[in-house]
Amino acid sequence: MDFNLTEEHLAVQEAARDFAEKELLHDAIERDTLSKFPEKQVKMMGELGFLGMMASENYGGGGMDTISYVLAMEEIAKVDASAAVIMSVNNSLVLWGLEHYGSDEQKQKYIPALASGEKLGCFCLSEPEAGSDATSQKTTAIDKGDYYLVNGTKNWITNGGSADIALVIAQTDTEKGHRGINCLIIEKGTEGFVVGKKEDKMGIRSSDTHSLMFSDVKVPKENRIGDDGMGFKFAMSTLNGGRIGIAAQALGIASGAYERAVQYSRERRAFGKSISQHQAIQFKLADMRTRIEAARFLIYKAALDKDEGRSYVESAAMAKVYASEVAMWVTTQAVQVHGGYGYVKEYHVERMMRDAKITEIYEGTSEIQRLVIAREILK
Ligand code: CAA
Ligand code: FAD
Q: Of 49, 187, 201, 363, which is the most exposed, with the fewest CB atoms less than 10 Å away?
């Protein structure tokens, strides 16, 4: 496995690092406190190409590989995990799904605006009573001939308040179970499509999480992605790649907290020397770095599996479960290294600890990743 990064990869990494440090860092704490969506920064991310990195150049995307995407995600999440998830949903759930399963007309109509950031997308699978158990969809899309009639509620939708285009998973034929599910493209402003309340969250507070309600929404047949009944397969296949993005988000959160812990340990003095001279702190830093590197290799492996055409169901799940648990552990240690200063907002690590938690929950909880891995082992 060759993990040597090309000059192009390094340039993408540097551009993302530069953007994060110059544009995201200075008011990250304020946006977190106020739950303020980073509108200006998201626009800039679109202009810089971060919102459509893997979409093909034919449709105005960056045409980049998954490794480039992972590198950029890490750099952005290092500073602001909320900006990273906004980017992740648009790139790996919405654009990737559309490009791989959409019709030519759908690609031409939607990808250019989504890849440039002129429009933002969201991915709507979860419901109040269907999270991990994603096949038990209650939202219905009844076939009415030349359109579907959509009714139901989607929960926890990232970019839900800001998105112009929603990919909505819904049950058309209950008798067919998961093979009776479709994915429909529903545009904001369609009659009967209402954005519900914004969630007041523990972490990733400046990302925009809403419930979405659909009441007798008429969706033209040409807005269905793929053949009739392949919506669940679409969602699962898209999530395999999405999980690599979330793993990279977790890696970024962990790396950001680790770098701050190293710097702080050099500056803070206790018992007549810098705390970095105490072995207990040194061992924490050593363990943090080791686990971060292990997570990085799992993520690069999953990204390479995807780029080189191998199955990445298992490697993506392994990367996500491992990196998210590393992020939770490393950020907790980073707060500990900072002592009382770690417990207040000014030093960023308490925000990172709160942000890390979500990576163990969304795009499939850690329990679901283990279930996916075990099924791959035993199949
Ligand atoms: N890749 C491709 N296909 C898959 C798949 C995968 N990873 N997992 C399941 N499938 C397919 C199966 O092959 C099967 O299709 P066939 O019958 O045609 O072979 C079909 O999906 C149903 O699979 P199962 O029989 O295994 O279904 P299940 O109900 O036992 O388990 C599950 C499915 C793996 C638990 C699935 O429901 C799941 O992944 N749940 C987690 C949901 C999730 O990740 N939600 C994320 C929402 S988006 C989000 O969170 C975004 C964000 O925060 C930013
Ligand atoms: P449940 O499925 O009810 O799980 C509760 C607990 O039971 C968990 O610990 C779970 O692991 C465990 N559990 C459930 N089933 C099993 C099992 N078979 N074996 C072992 N343990 C099990 N969804 C979207 O569709 N789009 C989005 O953009 C999106 N963004 C999100 C953003 C945020 C901030 C949050 C909080 C969620 C988001 N989600 C989104 C939803 C997210 O994917 C779900 O919350 C997640 O899949 C878990 O579902 P649930 O919350 O219903 O928990």
A: 187
